[in-house]
Write a structure and sequence with these properties.
Keywords: Oxidoreductase. The chain is of the alpha/beta class. 50% of the residues lie in helices and 13% in strands. The chain is built from 11 helices and 7 strands. The longest helix is centred in the middle third of the chain and has 29 residues, at 115-143. 40% of the residues are buried.
């Protein structure tokens, strides 16, 4: 006979409760689809964008489970206000999941890049992500519950011509997230790196159009130049479906043991495995010289 009326253990109650997600960059691409997937799964969302008019339809569809918040990651004051608003959005429930999705691209050979463009991409993709994470962590630590999901890229595992600075920011996100995992896992908190391959988010189209270098050096026409052209030509034809990616992220994060890295799309898997083989081959080739440096 089933017994009723027993108190639910706090950790079980927390697992079964609605989760509050704070997601950055929700006006387009992965962020927008992730808001839809989270709401479809029954959770609550604080959807951020630099212009909240761009997320009104998402918030309206979410009813009382969705709240819009303005957030420009280059503005520390907005970061602080956004976290405070998210913590209090649903009866002071706090933030259960932070998704650092917002970011920009830059298509340039290393030599062609301008200092202004380099600093801008690091300001948003690395420093903004870091600032927001540090603001969210105190609440998660206090509750001993929460997850940080950081968007990296297959370009965070291996780089390609024309996206050296973009990849550099994603390599930074990878290193930061690895360290964070070791620091917060003992506190009951989780991290997950999302590493997509090519997806139909119009990322390459917008970035290629808006962030071309001020000058293009002819010597790089067959490397960075050719890669830029390839990105533009493939815009809208990429094999990855952002909607399926969003569902995969929600599914992975709610698994009993979420992956620390989630590759998304067949190209990402193939490129990552190929890169691992390449690294091992080179390491083994130089193993004797490598070990000769020991005392």
């Amino acid at each position: 006979m089933e017994r009723t009326g027993w108190p639910v253990p706090p950790h079980i109650a927390k697992e079964n409760a609605l989760k509050t997600w704070l997601i950055t960059g929700t006006s387009t691409g992965f962020g927008r689809e992730l808001v839809k997937a989270v709401l479809a799964d029954g959770d609550r969302v604080v959807a951020t964008a630099r212009n909240i008019d761009h997320v009104k339809d998402l918030v309206s569809a979410g009813g009382d489970r969705a709240v819009p918040v303005q957030l420009d990651l280059t503005r520390p004051d907005q970061i602080a206000r956004a976290v405070d608003a998210a913590e209090r959005a649903f009866d002071d429930a706090g933030i259960d999941v932070l998704v650092n999705n917002a970011g920009i691209g830059y298509f340039s050979a290393v030599e062609e890049a301008t200092e202004e463009a380099i600093r801008q991409i690091f300001e948003i993709n690395v420093f903004g992500l870091s600032d927001l994470t540090r603001k969210v962590l105190p609440g998660m630590r206090a509750r001993r519950s929460g997850a940080i999901v950081n968007f990296s890229s297959i370009g965070g595992l291996r780089s390609f011509p024309a996206v050296g600075y973009y990849s550099a920011t994603k390599f930074a996100v990878e290193g930061l997230t690895e360290a964070l995992h070791h620091e917060i896992a003992p506190l009951g908190l989780k991290t997950m790196l999302v590493e997509p391959g090519p997806f139909r988010t119009d990322w390459a189209g917008r970035s290629a159009a808006e962030t071309l270098p001020e000058r293009e050096i002819a010597d790089y026409a067959d490397t960075a130049g050719a890669q830029r052209a390839a990105f533009r030509q493939e815009t809208g034809k990429e094999p990855g479906d952002p909607r399926k990616a969003a569902v995969a992220i929600v599914t992975a994060l709610k698994a009993p043991s979420p992956p620390r890295r989630l590759l998304l799309g067949t190209p990402a898997l193939e490129l990552a495995l190929d890169h691992l083989k390449s690294l091992e081959t080179e390491f083994r080739r130089w193993e004797e010289l490598t070990t000769s440096a020991d005392f």
